[in-house]
Design a protein that fits this description.
The protein is mainly α. The protein contains twelve helices and no strands. It folds into two domains: about 1-80, no CATH class; about 115-260, no CATH class. Helix 3 crosses helix 7. InterPro entries: DUF6291.
Length: about 270
Amino acid sequence: MERNSFIFYKGWREAIKDLPDDVRLEIYESIIEYATTGNLRGLKPMANIAFNFIKIDIDRDTEKYMSIVERNKSNGSKGGRPKSENPKEPKEPTKPTGLFGNPKEPTKPDNDNEYDNDYVDDNDSHLKKKETSPKGESKKDELSLFPEEKIDWGGLMDYFNSTFKGKLPAIKSIDAKRKKAIKARVAQYGKQAVFDVFQLVLDSPFLLGQNDKNWRCTFDWIFKSANFTKILEGNYNGKRTDTAATRRESVSSLTDLAEKLLQSSMPQEG
């Protein structure tokens, strides 16, 4: 079934904005084609990786759209909404409806502690204490409001490796332990946060190795609970430590300044 319109999420643009122009154009055209007609275009490997993530959102929206269409057809065949037997009888207020149907009742979020236990630094133990209420229920669970997302593990691995090629160590697989950590982060912040974090890492000289120890972050380090949050909060934005090179630059600047001061204080020959 063809559609005349569809929702375009800002997160899609953010996820592909740094790709080459020809790849982005290919993805944009594929989004329009698939969202309006349901037809899949043949894509090059890099474009296909990014599009597979976007396709999940399109499929979800299309499913909701079709359920609305079917519901409207069903109501129409029954002559519309049945009239109240007593016109004066007050009606109960109905919940708002929209393109995506009635909002779901809030449900108790899944416990994502099982994902975090393997990925919390020893230094984060005090954070875990703060996040625990007197009843022993984790406040972090209360914040995990995002429903479970479908994740293309192979696509995520390829996206990471292509994004950080030559910058960070590549990964060869996503095992059960990594899946737990990734699911925990997606449950906390949503799927788009993964793209946001990757972009923030890409823009951080410190995380890419420009520091005193030439240390670079890794895939597993990124998805640790505390680290992921710090990256999202901007703690590593453009960060560069006071490296030896920086200190040498400072010393050199001070030396030049001292020489200029000495020259200016020397008596001029008459």
